Amino acid sequence: MTYARSGYLPDHNTMDQNRLWVMNTRTGFIGYGSMGSMIVQGLLDKACLQPCNVLVSTRHPASLTPLIDKYPFVKVAKNNRALVRECNRVFLCTKPLDAVHVLSEIAGDLNPDTHLVSIAACLPIEQIARFFPGAITRVVPSLTAEMNSGVTLLCHNSGVSPGAAQEIEALFGALGNVMVIDEGNFEVGTDLTSCGPALIAVLIEEFARAAARTSTLTLEQARALVIPTLSGTARLLDERGFTIETILRRVATPGGITEEGAKLLQSEMPGVYDTLIQQTLTKHGLVKTTVRNEADRLLDRKP
Ligand SMILES: NC(=O)c1ccc[n+]([C@@H]2O[C@H](COP(=O)([O-])OP(=O)(O)OC[C@H]3O[C@@H](n4cnc5c(N)ncnc54)[C@H](OP(=O)(O)O)[C@@H]3O)[C@@H](O)[C@H]2O)c1
Questions:
Q1: How many CB atoms lie within 10 A of CB 147?
Q2: How many Å apart are CA 73 and CA 62, to the nearest integer?
Q3: For residue range 35-92, what is the model confidence (pLDDT) as tens digits?
């Protein structure tokens, strides 16, 4: 099933932030962990949401103290059901298995024209729709949004109006770039964006460790050499508009030393990355099955 509109990457700096202010939408967030807190704080800090229009509900409300200290007008909901009754846009920011339990809990209280935005991995729109047959957007955030960088992936179902889709894309656009893609590509896209920071961190670390093994550089020194190099390379690509080919042409000159390393990576890495993507896809499939089975169990239990 295809929900996606054509993919694009708007420049988040050109987003019309003022437009976001005029929204009177009551936005609720269920779950305030690593991603939920990043999204809530990011949107409040950027004044994309008015604190008095934000409600939060989480399992252990003590974690909300710093948020409420900073934004006293943010409301802590009594529970998830009370939150959804007051909101017309709800972000579901829990782990996938918790998400199906939350869906089962709130299904009867969701306003039929609420826009439900789920960031839960491995929980496809069709599974969410079994609990709530309304407007659903699925989102893959990335830790890089903490730096107003990286890409948030989104796809909407047919219940999401063009205006609501634009609003949610603009919100995430305030935290970095956004790309609307076909839900069928979410898993591979997740590898590149949301798993990306961890996978790239491993690459940096292994590069630094190899250097430390073969020299008198300490691991810390090797990291201090490679991390700014990664950051500078990303900026050349992202900000200066360099292409991969330009960088290779400028650095890996034919017959030179860098070319030796580049050739090795070009020969070894396709296999490594093919295996990586296969293994993560397999894991996605396993988690999706567990989540679907739990959804079956919860829905079967209902009268
Ligand atoms: N981490 C990433 O980089 C990343 C990237 C993309 C997508 N995701 C997806 O984003 C989702 C959240 O990930 P995360 O890393 O933010 O997880 P997390 O840090 O474990 O946060 C989950 C939050 O959900 C709360 N919660 C659990 N059950 C709840 C319930 N019944 N009612 C209300 N709140 C409940 C937890 O509360 P307590 O802490 O009090 O238990 C916690 O605040 C996951 O589905 C994940 O797949 C994560």
A1: 11
A2: 16
A3: 999 999 999 999 999 999 999 999 999 999 999 999 999 999 999 999 999 999 999 9
Distance between CA atoms of 168 and 113, rounded to whole angstroms?
Answer: 15
What number does the ligand 1 atom closest to the CA of 101 have?
A: 31
CA of 185 to the centre of ligand 1 (A): 22
* Structural domain boundaries in the chain: 12-182, 196-291
Ligand 1 atom with the shortest distance to the CA of 37: 16
Superfamily of domain 12-182: NAD(P)-binding Rossmann-like Domain (3.40.50.720)
CA of 28 to the centre of ligand 1 (A): 15
Question: Could you tell which of 29, 34, 175 is best to mutate to test the pocket of ligand 1, judged by most ligand atoms within 8 Å of the CB?
Answer: 34
Whether the pLDDT of residue 14 is over 90: the answer is no
**CATH fit for domain 196-291, picks 3.30.980, 1.10.3730, 1.25.40, 1.10.3430:** 1.10.3730
Q: Give 102's Cβ-side CA count (13 Å radius).
A: 27
The answer to whether the CB of 93 is under 6 A from ligand 1 is yes
Residue 218 CA to residue 208 CA, distance in Å, equals: 9
Q: Decide: 37 in ligand 1 pocket, CB within 6 A.
A: no
According to the model, what pLDDT value does residue 17 have? 45
Ligand 1 site, residue 34, Cβ cutoff 6 A: yes
Same fold, 12-182 and 196-291: no
